[in-house]
Amino acid sequence: MAARLFTATIICGLMFTTVTSVTGCGGDLTAPSGGPVTSPNYPGNYGNNENCEWSITVPEGSIIRLTFDSFYTEYGYDFLTIYDGASDNATEMEELAGYHSQISPIISTSNTLFLMFTSDGSVSRQGFQFNYTSSTAGQCWDPGLPANGDRDNNSNFTSGQTVRYTCMDGYQLRGTANITCQPNGTWSGA
Ligand SMILES: *[C@@H]1O[C@H](CO)[C@@H](O)[C@H](O)[C@H]1NC(C)=O
Ligand SMILES: *[C@@H]1O[C@H](CO)[C@@H](O)[C@H](O)[C@H]1NC(C)=O
Ligand SMILES: *[C@@H]1O[C@H](CO)[C@@H](O)[C@H](O)[C@H]1NC(C)=O
Ligand SMILES: *[C@@H]1O[C@H](CO)[C@@H](O)[C@H](O)[C@H]1NC(C)=O
Ligand SMILES: *[C@@H]1O[C@H](CO)[C@@H](O)[C@H](O)[C@H]1NC(C)=O
Ligand SMILES: *[C@@H]1O[C@H](CO)[C@@H](O)[C@H](O)[C@H]1NC(C)=O
What we know:
mainly beta, Jelly Rolls, Complement Module, domain 1, 2 domains, five-stranded mixed beta sheet, five-stranded antiparallel beta sheet, 38% strand, elongated, binds 2-acetamido-2-deoxy-beta-D-glucopyranose, Sushi_SCR_CCP_dom, hydrolase, Sushi/SCR/CCP_sf, sushi, protease
């Protein structure tokens, strides 16, 4: 008897509220959600000696989640540095350079993020594009409902809450059966 299998891939869906286009180099972003934010001249190459600063401020009590569409800079020389706060005095979360086919979402611990992009005097690449969304701290996104399966909890996905997945007869669960909403707004498993 061949077991039928399905994959329960849980996707933390983002809800975009507003989308504002941002051009030029740096800026103060204050909408609850925004993007695409790009490096200068994107999708063309950025210039030499760029120095861009973005500050993102969302409503008090919310956290920020950055999602990248693309990232390509000169490895070792052209950096995007992300700080977990209002300025470059805050804790550095990431220093990105080179080519990344995929970047995991970056999640702040408070309602501000500061980003700095610098390029040196030679060699440029396409740069990067990202969006951001905000959500209430301690609140996870709806983890989704797989086809041919069910979950035991459809209510608020708040910190500490567990959601348990089960499959219909004849189907086998792939992934994690019990996932818990963590304080930083991510789920403990897929
Ligand atoms: C960013 O927003 C743009 C425009 O709404 C959308 O096309 C793109 O898929 C979004 N990218 C990510 C990574 O969320
Ligand atoms: C960063 O820290 C320095 C030294 O502590 C201080 O002088 C400066 O005002 C701070 N800058 C910001 C933007 O908070
Ligand atoms: C769950 O969320 C709904 C609306 O999103 C709200 O009305 C309700 O009070 C929340 N319940 C709890 C237990 O937080
Ligand atoms: C959903 O999870 C919460 C917290 O874990 C729990 O209090 C509540 O009873 C659950 N609801 C259902 C329908 O299982
Ligand atoms: C999931 O949680 C239920 C009850 O909360 C428990 O009986 C079960 O063993 C858990 N399964 C896994 C794989 O942790
Ligand atoms: C969220 O918190 C969990 C548990 O502390 C940790 O394993 C995970 O890396 C964190 N994720 C992010 C994006 O900070």
